[in-house]
Amino acid sequence: xxxxxxxxxxxxxxxxxxxxxxMGKTSLLLRILDRANSLGYRTVSLNLQQVDELILQDLNRxxxxxxxxxSHQLKLKLKLDDYWDEDIGGKISCTLYFQDYLxxxxxxxxxxxxxEVNQLFEHPQVAKDVLPLLRSWYEEAxxxxxxxxxxxxxxxxxxxxxxxxxxxxxFNVGLPIQLDYFNQAQIQQLAQSYGLxxxxxxxQQLMTLVGGHPALVNIALYHLSCNEINLEQLLATxxxxxxxxxxxxxxxxxxxxxxxxxxxxxxxxxxxxxxxSVEPMITYQLHSMGLIKQVGDKVMPSCELYRTSFxx
Length: 312
Known about the structure:
Elements: H1 2-7, E1 14-18, H2 25-38, E2 42-47, H3 53-56, H4 59-73, H5 80-83, H6 90-105, E3 110-115, H7 118-121, H8 124-140, E4 150-156, E5 175-178, H9 184-193, H10 200-210, H11 214-225, H12 231-237, H13 246-258, H14 260-271, H15 280-288, E6 292-295, E7 298-301, H16 304-309
Parallel strand pairs: 1-4, 1-5, 2-3, 3-4
Antiparallel strand pairs: 6-7
């Protein structure tokens, strides 16, 4: 977190935050933006989950969406038609809109945060143009002072499943921040902050169940600290409809029911005695949901709760 605060103060910075869903990416992003605001920077935060599917499928429409939403959040007049020229293409039109309009109008450093960038990975043809464009803006800051105002924060849930030239990818430059699962010592420390007098045994039991998943750990500690349930009851009912994770599991089940291929693959993963291989796109989707973890080129359930909940 301290590294991120320091990085956004660097002209032309690029931060990359990666972790599966519900691992704390958005929370960290909000703290970074809050710090930027406290420094007097202008900030814009866009969540690509909010983009219409038809827009994500069309490069020109997506770039116009990007420019329009940035203008709106900066409270600047929309001037797309003044800068858009089909003869020079959408990427250059978008770049000129930022360079000659947005960055000229904004006098302070400007943080642009793009959350759920993995939405682009499902549209490889658009991603192959947008992602190198972000990299080019980062590189422009080395040559042109006006681009040094811009600080990019890119947030995504998974590995990159879009083939990109190393010199065009935004995912091998800047500061990478990967949010990991809690270890046992961190769980024990967090339990103390909830007012729970835990020893190694209790922390190990919860660790075995949820694998250090931050959201699942916090749900458990909250209910335990409220004396709604004891640890023994929590462990016994965790995967049941009466358990504290019922609504969390239901959200995953609802999505899996909509995508039978994902559901069947997850069943195979959870019933296997050891890590197995699955299709890359299946890995990408299940990993982004936080349901699996990768072991080399194979996968396994990310925690025991998911193994018992989705094995049938």
